[in-house]
Amino acid sequence: MRETKTTNPQLIDLIGLLKKESREKQAPIWLDVADHLAKPRSQRVAVNLSKLNRHTKKADVVIVPGKLLASGNIEHAVTVAAFDISATAKAKLDAVKAKYITIPELMEKNPKGSNVKIIR
User: Fold this and answer.
1) CATH number, position 42
2) How many CA atoms does the CB half-sphere of 92 hold within 13 Å?
3) What's the chain's Rg over C-alpha atoms?
């Protein structure tokens, strides 16, 4: 059986960047996120806002190595970085003054990945 590879150029670039930053900054969190993003699409993470609400507190910084979906509600402001986000989820985050940033933006702000939760 042949191994499936992603053909999404943004995803390929992001995985490469995550691995490079992990090596240079000795931050294993980025390698973990890269491994999750490198999985086939059917195995990639999809997280709902309800799960985010259950597993976070106000002002947490969270990374979703996949897509953030809008099912459920979030009741507190968090900072979320994800590979992709649905428009409805983005609107719900804005409604509670939560912040959505891209994974490269999070890596720039927090190169070591300290105090960042991975939600899968």
Assistant:
1) 3.100.10.10
2) 20
3) 14
**Strand 79-85 relative to strand 116-118: parallel, antiparallel, unpaired?**
unpaired
- pLDDT tens figures, 45-82: 899 999 999 999 999 999 999 999 999 999 999 999 99
* Structure-block tokens of residue 50: 């309800």
Query: What amino acid occupies position 111?
Result: P
> Alpha helices of 57-114 — where are they, by DSSP H?
87-95, 103-109
Alpha helices in the chain (DSSP H): 9-25, 28-37, 49-55, 87-95, 103-109
In this prediction the pTM is: 0.89
- The span from the CA of 19 to the CA of 71, in Å, is 31
Assign 117 to helix, strand or coil: strand
* Structural domain total, the chain: 1
Residue 82: C-alpha distances to residues 3, 38, 67 (Å) = 25, 14, 6
Asked if the structure places residue 44 within a domain, the reply is: yes
Q: Identify the domain containing residue 87 by its residue range.
A: 9-118
